[in-house]
Automatic annotation (TrEMBL):
Signal peptide residues on this chain, from the entry's feature table: 1-20
SUPFAM superfamilies according to UniProt: Periplasmic binding protein-like I
Protein name: Branched-chain amino acid ABC transporter substrate-binding protein
Keywords, in A-Z order: Signal
Family: Belongs to the leucine-binding protein family.
Annotated TM spans: none
InterPro entries listed in its UniProt record: Leu-bd (IPR028081), Peripla_BP_I (IPR028082)
Domain called Leucine-binding protein: residue spans: 24-364
Organismal lineage: Bacteria, Pseudomonadati, Pseudomonadota, Betaproteobacteria, Rhodocyclales
Length: 370
C-alpha cells in the first residue's frame, strides 16, 4: 500500500513539474524543399541544435522552467510564399523567428514580423535593405553585401584582372550584391566589360556567356546561388572561356563543386561572410557537435543560425521574459561569445565587425586564401 502511495506521489510530482514547464516556440523560415533545400536545412539544423542545448542546460524565465520547441516553415525561396509563412508563424504564437535564407524572402517577410511585434534574426540574408527599413526588431548575424561586395570587387580587380564581366540572378540578393561589386571594381581601378542577368531558376547560360566571351574579360563575377553557379562553370568551360570565376556566399558551397564537376578548377574563387568554420572561435567544437547530432556536414549557415537562436534566447534571459515586447529591445544589447565570434549588433541590427573570407578551389575543396 505504501509503495503504491509513493508511486502515485512521484507520478503526481512528475505531472506537476510537466505542467509548470512552459513551452516557448521559436520559428525558423527557410527553403526546406527545392534546389536550395540543403542550405535551408542547414539553417534549420543550426537552430535545432541551439534549442536542444539550451533545453539540456535548462532555462528559467519569470520563475518558470521553460522548454523551447521549433516550428519550421518552408518558404521555398519565394517572396510570396515567405510572406505567407511569416503570417503563419506570427499567427501560431511563436516568440521569435530565425530566417530567412534569401534576402528576397527576408525583406517582405520582415514587414509582417514588424507589424506583429515579432523579432527576426536572419542568419543568411545579406542585402543591406533588410536592416535599413528602420524596424527595431530586425537583425542579422552575417555580414551584409556592402562588406561582401567590396571584398569581391576589390579582390577581382586587384588580384584576378582589371576587365570584369558581371552576371546576377536578379533576386534581391543577387542584384544587390552585384551592385556593390560593380562599385568596388571601379573603385579599385577595374572596369566592367558588361553586365548580364539571368534568373535563380535558369540552367542555360550559353547566350549570356557567348556575349561575355566576345568581351574577353579577365574575370567573370556571378552573383547568385550554387544551383546556377555549378552549371554556369560547366558552360564556361564548354565555350572555352579562359576568364577566372568568382562568386559570393550563395555559390560558395560544396554543392557547386558537385554540380560543376571537372569544370571547376584552380581559377574558381568565392567569398563567404564571416571566418572559415575552422577559424571561428567556436567552429571546431560546433562542427563536432553538429556532425554528432545530424550526421551531416555544415554547409554554410548553421553557425549563424545557431548564434541567431542563441541571441534570441540570451535576450529573453536578460529580460527574464519570452514576451517579444519585453525581450526584443534586449536583442540589440546582447554581447556574448558565439560560434562565429562575439555576437553583438549595431544600431541598425547588423552584426558588428562582420568579416568576409575569400576562397579558392584547390585540391577538391574551397580553401581560404584571404
Amino acid at each position: 500500500m505504501k509503495r503504491s502511495l509513493v508511486a502515485l506521489a512521484v507520478l503526481g510530482l512528475g505531472a506537476s513539474l510537466a505542467q509548470a514547464q512552459e513551452v516557448i516556440k521559436l520559428g525558423v523560415a527557410a527553403p526546406l524543399t527545392g534546389t536550395q533545400a540543403h542550405l535551408g536545412k542547414d539553417i534549420e539544423n543550426g537552430v535545432r541544435l541551439a534549442l536542444d542545448e539550451y533545453n539540456a542546460k535548462g532555462v528559467t524565465l519569470g520563475g518558470k522552467k521553460v522548454k523551447f520547441e521549433l516550428q519550421a516553415e518552408d518558404d521555398q525561396a519565394d517572396p510570396k510564399t515567405a510572406t505567407t509563412v511569416a503570417q503563419r508563424l506570427a499567427d501560431s504564437g511563436v516568440k521569435g523567428v530565425v530566417g530567412h535564407l534569401n534576402s528576397g524572402a527576408s525583406i517582405p517577410a520582415s514587414r509582417i514580423y514588424n507589424e506583429a511585434g515579432l523579432p527576426q534574426v536572419s542568419p543568411a540574408s545579406t542585402n543591406p535593405k533588410l536592416t535599413q527599413q528602420g524596424f527595431k526588431a530586425t537583425f542579422r548575424t552575417i555580414a551584409n553585401d556592402v562588406q561582401q561586395g567590396l571584398a569581391i570587387g576589390k579582390y577581382a580587380a586587384t588580384k584576378l584582372g582589371k576587365k570584369v564581366a558581371l552576371i546576377d540572378d536578379r533576386t534581391a540578393y543577387g542584384q544587390g550584391l552585384a551592385d556593390e561589386v560593380e562599385k568596388a571594381v571601379k573603385a579599385n581601378g577595374g572596369s566592367l566589360t558588361g553586365r548580364e542577368f539571368t534568373s535563380d531558376k535558369a540552367t542555360d547560360f550559353l547566350a549570356i556567356l557567348t556575349r561575355i566571351k566576345a568581351q574577353n574579360p579577365d574575370v567573370i563575377v556571378y552573383s547568385g546561388m550554387d544551383t546556377q553557379a555549378g552549371p554556369m562553370l560547366k558552360q564556361i568551360k564548354q565555350l572555352g572561356i579562359n576568364a577566372k570565376f568568382i562568386t559570393g556566399d550563395g555559390g560558395c558551397t560544396g554543392e557547386v563543386i558537385k554540380l560543376a564537376g571537372d569544370a571547376i578548377g584552380g581559377s574558381a574563387y568565392c567569398t563567404q561572410p564571416g571566418l572559415p568554420l575552422d577559424k571561428m572561435p567556436g567552429g571546431k567544437n560546433f562542427n563536432e557537435r553538429f556532425k554528432k547530432r545530424f550526421n551531416a556536414d555544415v554547409q554554410i549557415y548553421a553557425p549563424y543560425s545557431y548564434d541567431a537562436a542563441s541571441a534570441i534566447i540570451e535576450a529573453m534571459k536578460a529580460a527574464n521574459s519570452a514576451d517579444p515586447a519585453k525581450y526584443a529591445p534586449a536583442i540589440g544589447k546582447v554581447n556574448f561569445p558565439g560560434v562565429i565570434g562575439t555576437v553583438a549588433f549595431d544600431a541598425k541590427g547588423d552584426i558588428k565587425d562582420g568579416a568576409v573570407t575569400v576562397y579558392q578551389f584547390k585540391s577538391g575543396k574551397w580553401e581560404a586564401v584571404q
